[in-house]
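User: Hey, my collaborator sent me this sequence without any context and asked if I could get a structure. I don't really work with proteins. Can you help?
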Amino acid sequence: MNTLPVDRALAIYSTIANRPEQKGARDRLSQHLWKVFLEGEHNPHRLTVHGLAYLQNLDRARDS
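Assistant: No problem. I've predicted the 3D structure and written it out in structure-token form, which is a compact way to encode the shape of the chain:
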């Protein structure tokens, strides 16, 4: 898997959420998307969507 879904998810989410990237978010997102990739999802667009959902969950956890 290349880093395109990671980069796209971070760029899109930072624009939509109007928040800077959390410290360590790139590493955690990369690990998460690698796991999803190994489970069989190879479509880069779907991986980006998984990444966006993951980042949203990170923000929710940070805000709670």
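In plain terms: The chain has a mean pLDDT of 92. You can pass these tokens on to your collaborator as they are.
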